[in-house]
Amino acid sequence: MRGAALMGVCNVTPDSFSDGGRYLAPEAAQARVDELLAEGADVIDVGGESTRPGAPPVPASEQTARVLDVVKYAASRGACVSVDTTSPSVAAACLDAGAWAVNDVSCLRDEDLARVVAASGGALVLMHARGTQAEMRGFSQYPDEGYGDVVVDVRAEWEAAAARARSLGVTRDALVMDPGLGFAKNARQSLELLRRSGELVRSLDVPVALGASRKSFLTLVDDGARPDERLGASIAAALAAAARGVAILRVHDVRATRQALDLGRRLSGGR
To answer: Which entry of 76, 85, 239, 245 is 20 to 30 Å from 58 by CA?
Structure first.
């Protein structure tokens, strides 16, 4: 075991920050699923709505049209599938089509999402966030004073959302915690969450997921680097998170991340 599961990103959108438009066509999305599985992804995360700062909301009907056949295809390949959505109706359709989990980047803004997950018996990845994507000021822009202690505050706000989910029928063992790097956090706050991710792991009784891949806070070590120029920092972030006990890593570059994790495990004496 490499210690952390790899969640490979399949964005079926025209405007995602890193790969928008690349997998919007059905054939391209299916090829992306095949690529991710061949590279060693443990989970395929399919999304039909961009979560970049300033992204406009996408109607549920359009999201469903984008992702449903991709979810069905991935499930038919035997993949463990999550759907990246905040829409209860999109979640319901995808869970019915074979998805295993809902990846909610809103921290349960719509409580019906929890009801849908509870009814399906699936898992709910609750990501910490404040406000909608359309309200986000920009990449890694957030006031320094927005948090007292970012780890303590994020954990407390996540626990409040988790309690709401449980009151709506989602069992605690169906929850996954994501601290939401880059979502209502500036670069320094995201880096602090990554650096102290072990504190989250130790203080929670649910798995922790983390998505650092290609995100803007990584330009702290390479100012001006474009998303596709952040591979080295992305891999370093993945290794750091895995070493701290993070259970799921959401990544764009599955093969490169898998190689780094597997070699690190062998160097430390594992197989």
So the answer is: 76
From the candidates 32, 155, 214, 215, give the one annotated as an active-site residue.
Answer: 215
- Annotated active-site residue 77? The verdict is no
Place of tokens 């066509």: 25
180-205 b/e (C-beta count within 10 Å ≥ 16 → b): bbbbbbbbebbbbbbebbeebbeebe
Q: Where are the domains of the chain?
A: 5-267
Q: Which of 214, 230, 250, 258 is catalytic?
A: 250
250 as an active site residue: the answer is: yes
43 strand-pairing partners? 7, 80
Kindly report the CATH class assigned to 5-267: alpha beta
Tokens 């069905």 correspond to 72
